TrEMBL record:
Stretches the record annotates as Disordered: 267-297
Protein's gene: LOC111127504
Sorted UniProt keywords: Signal
Signal peptide: 1-21
Protein's recorded name: Uncharacterized protein LOC111127504
Organism lineage: Eukaryota, Metazoa, Spiralia, Lophotrochozoa, Mollusca
Organism: Crassostrea virginica
Length: 309
């Protein structure tokens, strides 16, 4: 087991509060092989509020947690379109613990899991979501994460389309008083181009982007967060950014019975972001951070320990 010291002031991914646990974020992707769909998800919770429980420690990394606390027991990944019957429950939010922070505050825990479904068929499109998320940051109601998977056979590869995969770390650094640019890492198994956009209300519920004046580059998936008073940021307030990643072919292809051009996406997956209110560093350090427009992998303060398997 390795221990890393990482400076943080931004939590990447979504959040949930008391009704359904304190959720910080997650994503899900799909790969279809040998007539079976494999769905892989990653979830991040406030430490002690996730499947690992209130006594969670670095000794639990690598363990599978299948018995969920009451606050999480009702949460389900659900198929909302394409399945027979409609609104079919697919899986709960249990996982194997893969990472754990040990900050001076509450910290976070991260886990991953995959599950299979043999009910899905090629040349069909399926939509899934995880809903009823009581978001911790500023929002008007409950949030959700939504994804859509087109399993059509591609004429360029001869196999069903695979969704993009997002690899955003559980925590990244952003400083109050300056603009931070966050590059959202993603890849596509079919070598398609991955594009990013802000989620629409039907993809994030009543807990969509609340961070003011953020900009998201569609082509490069770079997110600019101007965390300054001039752009409406309050150091005592938490904010949300909800993002959808989509795969676009580099040339016109057929996917099942559909034609997909370079401007028509095939699948989409969620990546949802929260950044809590950071405490500005003292004068000279704050000025330096502002001048350097610090990158999230080069933060300046608030060290925490992160334990990985």
């Amino acid at each position: 087991m390795k221990t890393f010291a990482i400076a943080i002031t931004l939590l990447l991914w979504l959040i949930i509060s008391f009704a359904n646990g304190k959720f910080i974020g997650g994503t899900i992707s799909n790969y279809f092989y040998n007539r079976v769909a494999r769905l892989t998800y990653r979830l991040v919770w406030e430490r002690g509020a996730g499947p690992c429980g209130s006594t969670c420690s670095e000794k639990d990394i690598g363990k599978a947690f299948t018995s969920l606390p009451p606050a999480l027991s009702s949460l389900r990944w659900r198929c909302t379109a394409g399945c027979q019957p409609a609104d079919t429950d697919l899986h709960d939010v249990s996982y194997t613990l893969t990472a754990l922070s040990n900050s001076s505050g509450s910290g976070w825990e991260q886990g991953e899991k995959y599950f299979f479904t043999s009910a899905w068929k090629v040349n069909h499109t399926y939509k899934i979501e995880l809903s009823g998320l009581d978001v911790l940051a500023s929002s008007s109601g409950l949030g959700k994460m939504a994804a859509a998977f087109d399993l059509g056979i591609r004429n360029d590869t001869g196999v069903p389309n695979a969704s993009p995969v997002s690899a955003v770390p559980a925590v990244l650094g952003v400083q109050y008083g300056c603009t931070t640019v966050i590059n959202i890492p993603a890849e596509d198994p079919d070598a398609d181009s991955v594009r990013c956009r802000l989620a629409a209300p039907d993809e994030c519920g009543d807990a969509c982007t609340s961070a003011p004046n953020v900009t998201l580059n569609w082509e490069t998936c770079s997110l600019s967060v101007p965390a300054t008073p001039e752009f409406g940021y309050d150091p005592d307030k938490d904010y949300l950014v909800t993002v959808m990643l989509e795969d676009y072919p580099d040339y016109t292809i057929s996917v099942g019975d559909q034609v997909r051009s370079i401007r028509k996406p095939i699948s989409k997956i969620p990546t949802q972001v929260q950044h809590p209110s950071p405490t500005p560093p003292p004068g000279p350090l704050h000025q330096e951070a502002h001048q350097q427009n610090t990158h999230p992998d080069q933060p300046y303060y608030e060290l925490v320990n992160v334990y990985y398997a």
